[in-house]
Amino acid sequence: MSATRPSPVASDKFYRQLPLTARRFFLSLVSSPPVSTHAVDRPLDATGDMDPLRLLLPRVQAQPLLPLPAGVPAPSVRPRLVPRRRARRHRNGAARMLPASAVASESPWTEQDPASGEKEERFDWLDQWYPFAPVEDLDPGAPHGKMVLGIRVVAWYDRGAGEWRVFEDACPHRLAPLSEGRIDDKGRLQCVYHGWCFDGRGACKFIPQAPALGPPVHTNSKACVASYPCVVQNKLLWFYPRAGPEHSDVLQRKRPPFIPEIDDPSFVTSFLIRDMPFGYDVLAENLMDPSHVPYAHKGLFRGLPRLVDPGRYEYDEEGGVPMAVQVEESSVNGYASSQGPGYSKFVAPCTYYGSPASKKSEKNKPHLMIVFIIVPVAPGRSRVMWAYPRNFGLWLHKITPRWFDHIGVNVVLDSDMYLLHLEERNFAKAGIENWQKSVYVPTTSDGTVVAFRNWFRKHCGFQVGWAAPTVDQLPPTPTKDKLMDRYWSHVAQCTSCSAALKAMKALEVALQVASIAVVGLLAVAKGTLLTSVAQRAAVVSAAVLCFVASRWLADFIQKKFYFEDYVHAYK
């Protein structure tokens, strides 16, 4: 049975400016033909329903072609109605549709009408726990500085209490970074600028410049450093970005998101941490998007099953197919979704985890999980912590060095890093609040991406609630070798990769020394120890092999620990 849509409207000024031919074409578009249920070329939105069309009109004049929901007043306009006219129909009975460039998928993107008076619950960015780093990458003998949520913080190990502490990364004396300091012989955090020392509560315990017989200036509240509540959970150090005694017992009220599989002794888990040169929202939607994997990471995930799309006769080399992603629940605290037997869950603002193989239940634990910790750092900067807990291949995990696993993960992160960096700038140019108007997401494969953007719009107003004043402007784009640098974004933060790099550099030097030594031996012992041609050939071969091995190792170090370009055209 066909449905009749209300005709759109256009103002006199806009309509009269059109040439006669364009007016006739316009009239054919704005008519209200019955839509056949047998149409095969109609666009679908992320829920599988027909996508509402929008005319090629200025934004202030574009009207919805679908009836407004009950209780939602129609927008007030003062147009002249255009006479109706029957549109031409295809031979199969379907009404003619607008080209793809003239439509927008709006069903999954739920707009809030200001006239309805409804207000979405706002997400409180400061009333959340944020991950600092994996504990296995933190050296208890030194302080560690990072930026999280726009504030600089320093983590250090309080030997007296046997706990990690997180402070504001600024000495109250002259605001020098405490992360450049040291742990003194009494286990206190010392600022290396003037030697001020602080205990685990942030209280100043020693000011070298203050006379011993003078007033106790170190007891003044201005001499204290802000100390944030922190806790170690799921092998990560978390902190709460509000200092003060009123927040000291925040753990009694709420804790960081907990994933039981990470602490399960039958599972093995190891984290990777890396800084990314694009913002929190771009990182989040990329990690939540399964359909980009066979294309942006072509050839990196070998052995994945080839899915079948019923009715399709043509498959590309990468094997991309539709994905039935369904968002099951959504609130200010995140959302949950499913895809076939798998599931995923977003716990706002940082935790996204799931399993591609089985739904979560107490009796049926997934054999493999994927965990992404998404950290807002600053405008245009973010941080990811990646782990995949699993209860198989335990022996392989024990014999494989952690740095070797990180090499493969870094290649995956490199493969779409430049794409996302430029994508963010394209979003900024269009206006992040215009995300839905700038993109076209007609399939269910984009379900989790649309769900995140809906959450980010409805509960956050398209903005991260930074804990400190920030300039909401993207940094300039550096050269590709600096943008995709691995050393400062990962290796310097990873104890395993740092140790491997140090050992490989030592081996490279040893190979070079060995090649020179062998050549020297050949020159000295040419007529004494090395009398035959075969002996001299063997020594020369050894020298050449040592030199070639040192050059190969230098190239390996450069590509795996510093920079390796990723050219999609040749993958």
UniProtKB/TrEMBL annotation:
One of its GO terms (molecular function) is 2 iron, 2 sulfur cluster binding. The chain crosses the membrane at residues 506-525, 537-554. Its main location: membrane. Keywords: 2Fe-2S, Chloroplast, Iron, Iron-sulfur, Membrane, Metal-binding, Oxidoreductase, Plastid, Transit peptide, Transmembrane, Transmembrane helix. Residues 130-239 form the Rieske domain. One of its GO terms (cellular component) is membrane. This is Rieske domain-containing protein. Pfam families: PaO, Rieske. CDD domains: Rieske_RO_Alpha_PaO (cd03480). Residues 84-120 are annotated as: Disordered. InterPro entries: Cholesterol_7-desaturase, PaO, Rieske_2Fe-2S, Rieske_2Fe-2S_sf. It is found in: Membrane; Plastid, Chloroplast. Signal peptide: none annotated. Residues 84-93 have a biased composition (Basic residues).
